[in-house]
């Protein structure tokens, strides 16, 4: 009787444990994460039924197997159970599986009363999609970098177009367009900052050499002893400290492209003789070499010096001047093409607003000061000043005070000039009308902010306001 009762109790307990196991198994099978139960010998006791997707093998192929054996078989690359058993604490790793999945696995040790590990429960979260998303984001980042570079290239190409309203500059640009393909030496003359380097690049861009090298050197920025080797190159052992392999000179590097000699008026008399020989014979010789190389590059020279005056003083060779002066281009200073100042102000303001993600505007008086200033540094100075104003002015509206401070001007003196200009300046009526229209739009935007309100006050269509703001870069 007692034996029957014991058997009944055992059956009930077995039934209880079976029911408990089934409930646990249901929980394991229905959870979003993969759960694995492993004993102290790393043998898998229980695993979720959808393990095929995570591990690439079925439940029957996993249960009863040792985790270390499964690593050798390639089911996964490392055993979380082995690490938990070794360290005696919770461990988290990233596991790669045979089904090409990436799992974030955390192993939890289960201890008995003697603080011995009896089981390990592993919870695996599939992070494959997250990893793929991360990779996509990284790829997108690379794509964005490429896109920015391409946009910058397009912007640079776009900015190569000379911005001018001056008739003299338009004639220069027309001359460049007509002569860019000719091999004639070009001499660019003009004050510092008028855009000689820009025009040299414009010639290259418009010529049949645009896909060939464009090499440039500032003749006034390099010491004479180094300049000769830079221009003509040298052979092995030509002088102490020379490169063992020798070095190509600028004219050699230029190949059949364009060589731009900036500040050519700063060349020493010794180098002037060598340059004259290059222009006459179209050949040059490396320092220490016996055999010359042929020069096929077109040569553009530039200087801010009065070369005729330099010839009188004995500072520049007359014969070299005639060799350089085949196609002279005199670039007028900014003070002689006042109509370009307005265009350049808006261009540089718009460019720097875009560059620094700002929306700065000039007040009417600030704009007038910029217009009447003589700009001794020409375009280079104008660009520099506007960039400084954009990044240093704390308010959206740049006032005359900020302009006066940066240009270090006397405020009263320039206020008088502004008043005089308003009272006595005579400019073409069409230009004056446009300037008045621009000033009215600036004042309206400053005061009313929205194009709808501006249109109401100015008594024109909103679409006209939008078009005009775009036209004047306001």
Description of the molecule:
The structure is a single chain. This protein is α/β, with parallel strands linked by helices and 474 residues long. The protein folds into 3 domains: 96 residues, PAS domain (Beta-Lactamase, 2-Layer Sandwich), CATH 3.30.450; 173 residues, 3-Layer(aba) Sandwich (Rossmann fold); 135 residues, Helicase, Ruva Protein, domain 3. It is built from 21 helices and 16 strands. Strands 2-1-5-4-3 form a 5-stranded antiparallel β-sheet, sandwiched between helices. A 5-stranded parallel β-sheet has the order 7-10-13-6-14. Strands 8-9 form a two-stranded antiparallel ribbon. Strand 11 and strand 12 form a beta hairpin. About 4% of the residues have low confidence.
Brief overview:
The protein has 474 residues and is α/β, with parallel strands linked by helices. 53% of the residues lie in helices and 15% in strands. The protein is built from 21 helices and 16 strands.
Architecture blueprint of SSEs:
Layout: H1 2-30, E1 34-39, E2 44-47, H2 51-55, H3 59-62, H4 67-73, H5 80-87, E3 91-96, E4 102-111, E5 117-126, H6 128-159, H7 167-179, E6 186-189, H8 196-206, E7 214-218, H9 224-232, E8 233-234, E9 247-248, H10 250-253, E10 258-262, H11 269-281, E11 283-284, E12 293-294, E13 298-303, H12 307-312, H13 318-324, E14 327-330, H14 338-356, E15 361-362, H15 364-372, H16 378-392, E16 397-398, H17 400-407, H18 411-424, H19 429-448, H20 451-458, H21 462-471
Parallel strand pairs: 6-13, 6-14, 7-10, 10-13, 15-16
Antiparallel strand pairs: 1-2, 1-5, 3-4, 4-5, 8-9, 11-12
Helix pairs in contact: 11-13, 14-15, 14-16, 15-17, 15-18, 19-20, 20-21
């Amino acid at each position: 009787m007692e034996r029957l009762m014991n058997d009944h109790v055992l059956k009930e307990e077995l039934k209880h444990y079976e029911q408990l196991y089934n409930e646990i198994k249901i929980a394991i099978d229905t959870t979003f994460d993969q759960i694995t139960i492993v004993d102290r010998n790393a043998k898998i006791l229980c695993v979720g039924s959808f393990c095929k997707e995570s591990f690439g093998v079925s439940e029957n192929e996993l249960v009863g197997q040792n985790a270390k054996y499964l690593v050798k078989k390639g089911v996964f690359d490392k055993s979380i159970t082995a690490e938990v058993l070794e360290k005696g604490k919770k461990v988290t790793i990233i596991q790669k599986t045979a089904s090409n999945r990436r799992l974030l696995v955390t192993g939890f040790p289960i201890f008995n009363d003697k603080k011995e590990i009896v089981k390990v429960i592993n919870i695996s979260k599939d992070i494959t999609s997250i990893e793929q998303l991360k990779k996509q984001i990284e790829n997108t980042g690379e794509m964005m970098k490429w896109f920015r570079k391409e946009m910058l290239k397009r912007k640079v190409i776009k900015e190569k177009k000379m911005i001018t309203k001056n008739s003299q500059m338009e004639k220069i640009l027309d001359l460049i367009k007509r002569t860019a393909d000719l091999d004639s030496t070009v001499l660019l003359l003009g004050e510092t900052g008028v855009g000689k380097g820009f025009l040299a690049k414009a010639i290259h861009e418009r010529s049949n050499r645009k896909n060939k090298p464009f090499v440039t050197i500032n003749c006034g920025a390099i010491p004479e002893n180094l300049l000769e080797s830079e221009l003509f190159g040298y052979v092995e052992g030509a002088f102490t400290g020379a490169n063992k392999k020798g070095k190509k000179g600028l004219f050699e590097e230029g190949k059949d492209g364009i060589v731009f000699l900036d500040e050519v008026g700063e060349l020493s008399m010794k180098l002037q003789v060598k340059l004259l020989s290059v222009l006459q014979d179209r050949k040059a010789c490396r320092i220490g070499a016996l055999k010359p190389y042929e020069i096929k590059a077109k040569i553009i020279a530039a200087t801010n010096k009065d070369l005729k005056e330099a010839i009188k003083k004995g500072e520049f060779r007359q014969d070299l001047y005639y060799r350089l002066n085949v196609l002279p281009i005199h670039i007028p200073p900014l003070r002689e093409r006042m109509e370009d100042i307005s265009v350049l102000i808006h261009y540089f303001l718009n460019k720097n607003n875009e560059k620094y993600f700002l929306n700065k505007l000039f007040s009417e008086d600030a704009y007038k000061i910029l217009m009447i200033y003589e700009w001794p540094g020409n375009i280079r100075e104008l660009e520099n000043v506007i960039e400084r104003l954009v990044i240093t002015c704390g308010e959206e509206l740049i006032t005359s005070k900020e302009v006066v401070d940066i240009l270090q001007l006397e405020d009263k003196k320039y206020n008088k000039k502004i008043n005089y200009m308003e009272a006595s300046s005579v400019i073409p009526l069409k230009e004056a009308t446009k300037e008045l229209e621009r000033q009215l739009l600036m004042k309206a935007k400053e005061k009313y902010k929205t194009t709808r309100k501006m249109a109401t006050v100015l008594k024109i269509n909103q679409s006209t306001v939008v078009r005009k703001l775009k036209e004047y870069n306001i």
